[in-house]
Amino acid sequence: MLGEPTPDRHEVGAARRRKEDARLVTGRTQWTDNIQLPGMLHVAFLRSPMAHARITGVDTSAARSMPGVIAAFSGRDFAGEQGTLPCAWPVTEDIVIPDHPPMAVDEVRYAGEAVACVVATDRYKASDALEAIEIDYEPLPPVLDMTEALKDGGPKVHEAGNRAYTWKYAEGDIDAAFRDAPVVIERTFVQQRLIPTAMEPRAVVAQTDGDHFTLHSATQIPHILRIMLAQVTGIPEHKLRVVAPDVGGGFGSKLQVTAEEVLLLLLTRRLGKPVKWTESRSEGNLTVHHGRDQLQRVSLAADADGRLRGMRVDLLADMGAYLMLVTPGIPILGAFMYNGIYKMDAYDFTCTGVFTTKMPTDAYRGAGRPEATFAVERLMDELAAELSLDPIEVRRRNWITHEEFPYTTIAGLTYDSGNYEAATDRALALFGYDKLRAEQVDRRDRGDPVQLGIGVSTFTEMCGLAPSRVLGSLSYGAGGWEHASVRMLPTGRVEVVTGASPHGQGHETAWSQIVADALGVPFEDVSVLHGDTAISHKGMDTYGSRSLAVGGVAVVQACEKVKEKARHIAAHLLEASADDVEFDGGRFKVRGTDAGKTIQEIALAAFAAHDLPDGVEPSLDSDATFDPENFSFPHGTHLCAIEVDTETGATKIRSYVAVDDVGKVVNPLIVEGQVHGGLAQGIAQALFEEAVYDAEGNLLTTTMADYLVPSAADLPDFVTERTETPATSNPLGVKGVGEAGTIASTPAVVNAIVDALRPYGVNDVPMPCTPERVWRALQGGTS
């Protein structure tokens, strides 16, 4: 039986429980590590224990003789066919892009780099056999500090040197902006290195059938991966299928072409057997690309009343040992957001990418925009303190007002819509701002050892990573469009094929809601297919908060084409002119009459093809590809109250309010989940997480005991609400939401901590703001 349409109910905007959750949360689904194939072998990788060394000898013979071992290989065994891992974003013409072999051949450049592998009948035998492989290393000096790496005469990561590129952007007269400025704020901030920690570790299964290959991978980018793997391995693209089954989280860490994906394809080609690799959590900490790791030297010039004049940014970005898929472009994304929501006369940005002997960095939730937002929001609080102004007031004096949209910023982006006043006013009311400020004064007056700090973050971000022409102007190696197909089945149900590949975002539910409204069919009668290049043959995948604003709009456009095809068939069956046929709530009607047919009836008539207009094909199925002309710009105001124990350095978030504007909302429950998850990751950077290397370049934070990821017990209850200014860059009016919480929350938390400590002479605490670091700041103060 077909589900009953509900013409009076709009699905878009409804708080639908996610239809995919039943299988995801109970584990009744297909993760990559669940895949079992006849004759499948297991792969384990031996990884370098040294950050920098020449490989002078490899002996795998003992490993090959161990029980259950089928084969063992060194990098030299694959030197002629493994190629180099791709970098798709050469941000400058003179950028240095070193060869990046999936398995090291002559030299290792970070601890954890693969140097050999074992193939065995189970994963434990493969892992045990790694201990029998003998590798001889000639140690080389590690390169760990970016500033030292750029000095002449020091050790080099690559023969070409340690500078990957220098990228500049400037607008306005920056010298005039700073010349004789009544107020100049200068700060240096460290964006510590982070390790993405998805719920599902990476896993890869590769198999061959003659000259055809299938790769299953826990990846965010099956379509991009297919193209890149074809180029690296030489396997023709049309003979390579990539499948991303249900994927348990990505956050950018699975936006990658990894060494393991390339090597497993080469192994299955060489051995003729299916092969599987699943990383351990410690292995993942070593070899999942890392995030952030930037040194920000920033300065702000302002008038005596707090009006901004100009901003300088001098950025060092740690690339790690190699440039991975989009490594060099990540800090460049932030270049357009250091101005935030504020007006100013001049802006000067310089970014230098630096090679070090560490795991390469790449996209991590927010990808360049959290770093930029942190810098500008910290500076706005510093400016407020310098002028003895309330942090909210100094922002009001500088932000773009709602009457000024669309507004082209000093960084060259055109913000299409927004209302910072509305979001801030609502956040202040929910937070009880004035009451908390009064309590803060009282605690200071009483000398309370537990001080109260209030942090502000009024932010925007560029997301819906798309416009192909813009990406092309930034030398990005691909476009930003997205593809969708909508198929009307003979029984009246609908299949949607999307190029946006989910890893926890709820695409199946949101797309079903969009289609239910667009076609007037029941929500339950829509299914969504994704993640398999043999089913979804076109797509640009999921990252940069682009799925809904780009992929969702492609679905809408495909639905419009379905309705247009159906309208002509309906007109024929109703013996009317197509111009007189209207569509409403799933039904085609002749204007001014009750005569009509449902879209399901039209689908069946098209399938039967007994009575179609001349020249009309018997199908309603339609495709669409959407390439927006602009990014989308969600915004919001986040407020954080933190209690800081000045005797121990302990901090406790007392309350947190987030009012976000993500345009039109398709599903409030999904939005809430995205905001909550984003807040957890942003707060984690502020208070908990840091990848630490020792002086020899060894990663010390390889386990969950060493790398601190907060649990629910470590986080407060969040108060969240929304304002709504629809985007004008897409017909749905939607903006991205997946990264907003991460981008906004880190500066809100750190601003709150610094606000609590200002009476003690402290104007910064390095992240993560652990109790020890807060205590040390209190002992010495900063100025």
From TrEMBL:
<protein>
    <submittedName>
        <fullName>Xanthine dehydrogenase family protein molybdopterin-binding subunit</fullName>
    </submittedName>
</protein>
<keyword id="KW-0560">Oxidoreductase</keyword>
<dbReference type="InterPro" id="IPR016208">
    <property type="entry name" value="Ald_Oxase/xanthine_DH-like"/>
</dbReference>
<dbReference type="InterPro" id="IPR008274">
    <property type="entry name" value="AldOxase/xan_DH_MoCoBD1"/>
</dbReference>
<feature type="region of interest" description="Disordered">
    <location>
        <begin position="1"/>
        <end position="21"/>
    </location>
</feature>
<dbReference type="InterPro" id="IPR046867">
    <property type="entry name" value="AldOxase/xan_DH_MoCoBD2"/>
</dbReference>
<feature type="domain" description="Aldehyde oxidase/xanthine dehydrogenase a/b hammerhead">
    <location>
        <begin position="26"/>
        <end position="141"/>
    </location>
</feature>
<dbReference type="InterPro" id="IPR037165">
    <property type="entry name" value="AldOxase/xan_DH_Mopterin-bd_sf"/>
</dbReference>
<dbReference type="Pfam" id="PF02738">
    <property type="entry name" value="MoCoBD_1"/>
</dbReference>
<dbReference type="InterPro" id="IPR036856">
    <property type="entry name" value="Ald_Oxase/Xan_DH_a/b_sf"/>
</dbReference>
<dbReference type="Pfam" id="PF01315">
    <property type="entry name" value="Ald_Xan_dh_C"/>
</dbReference>
<dbReference type="Pfam" id="PF20256">
    <property type="entry name" value="MoCoBD_2"/>
</dbReference>
<keyword id="KW-0500">Molybdenum</keyword>
<dbReference type="InterPro" id="IPR000674">
    <property type="entry name" value="Ald_Oxase/Xan_DH_a/b"/>
</dbReference>
